[in-house]
Design goal:
alpha+beta; 1 helix; 19% helix; globular
Length: 118
Amino acid sequence: MPNIKKIGEEVRFSPCDGYPGSFELRVIKVTRYTSLVRALSLQRTPHWIADIDIQIRVYRDAQMAEVVEWCRDRSIPWALSEPSGLQAPDEKWQWNMFLSELLAQGIRSATKSIKASI
């Protein structure tokens, strides 16, 4: 993102060529060392499929990111120590892997759209 320290900064991208939907990344909170970013899918899905809506904490000094909340109703505890029938043991890992793939695809689509000057 061009300015991850500015609240309201946003970037939109399509994860695949020819994909009808897109994603929006928007900075919603900034603290001294971190930024909270919301990733939202901007596509029309059938009512039985939940929209992708995740919150990501970006550690600017370490240049790392992690998913801290997904689908507006599932917050991830710091340690998944309490057994819960609603969470898989590796659910946080799965969301972080999804974030990794989403951002990698966003970088690939962004580099295709940039024209190099000669």
